[in-house]
Amino acid sequence: MSTEVCNETDVEVDETEFVDLAAWVLRAMHVSPGAELSLVFVDPDAMETLHVQWLDLPGPTDVMSFPMDQLRPGTPDKPTPPGMLGDIVICPQVAAEQAAKQGHSAVEEMLLLFVHGILHLLGYDHAERAEEREMFDLQRRLLLTFLSSR
C-alpha cells in the first residue's frame, strides 16, 4: 500500500504514524496492497476554500475525502483490486479545537479523522442514523486496535 503524506501547515505531524495507520486500516478492510492513498494537511484558509468549492458550506471543516476509483472493502478471500483510493485533507487547527472540546489530544483527533476519511473513500457514509452507527463504531474499533498494537 502506498500512502503519500503532504503537510502544508506549520503544525508538526508524525507522518510515519499516519502511514502506519493507513496500512493497518487498509489491511483490516481487505484492500489490495496495490492501493494508493494521499493525505494532505492544510491550514484553515485552504480548508475553507475546499469546503466552499466542493460542499458549498462556509468555514473550514475538519476533514474532507475525495474518492478516485470507487474502491470498496474486500473480504479475506477476495481483496479489492489495486487502484487509487483517493485524497484525504485534514485541517490540524480545526482538529485541535475539536480535540480540546472532546478532552483528548489533537493527534488522536487527527488519527480518528484519518480513519473517518479512509472509510468515506471506501464508500461508508453517515447520512442515516444506521449508517452513522456502523461507520462510527467501525472507525472507533479500527483506531483503538491500531493504537493498542503500538
UniProtKB/TrEMBL annotation:
Swiss-Prot/TrEMBL GO biological process terms: rRNA processing
Molecular-function GO terms, alphabetical: metalloendopeptidase activity; RNA endonuclease activity; zinc ion binding
Alphabetical keyword list: Cytoplasm, Endonuclease, Hydrolase, Metal-binding, Nuclease, Ribosome biogenesis, rRNA processing, Zinc
Record-level GO cellular component terms: cytoplasm
Residues annotated for Zn(2+) binding in this entry: 116, 120, 126
Domain of life assignment: Bacteria
EC number: 3.1.-.-
A Pfam family of this chain: YbeY
Cell location: Cytoplasm
Cofactor(s) in the UniProt record: Zn(2+)
Matches recorded under PROSITE patterns: UPF0054
InterPro entries according to UniProt: MetalPrtase_cat_dom_sf_prd, YbeY, YbeY_CS
Enzyme class at the top of the EC tree: hydrolase
Cofactor note: Binds 1 zinc ion.
NCBIfam families: rRNA maturation RNase YbeY
Its job: Single strand-specific metallo-endoribonuclease involved in late-stage 70S ribosome quality control and in maturation of the 3' terminus of the 16S rRNA.
Family: Belongs to the endoribonuclease YbeY family.
PANTHER family, sorted: ENDORIBONUCLEASE YBEY, CHLOROPLASTIC (PTHR46986:SF1)
Stated name of the protein: Endoribonuclease YbeY
Organism taxonomic ancestry: Bacteria, Bacillati, Actinomycetota, Actinomycetes, Actinomycetales
